[in-house]
Amino acid sequence: MAMRDALLVIHIICVAAWLGANLVLAFAGPMAVNADASARRWWAEVRGKMGKIYYNIAGILILITGVILVIDSNSIEFSSMFISIGFLAVIIGALLGIFVFGPGSREIVSAIDSGDRDKEHAVNNRLTTMGIIDTLVMVLAIVAMVGHWGL
Question: What is the pLDDT of residue 15?
Answer without folding.
Answer: 98
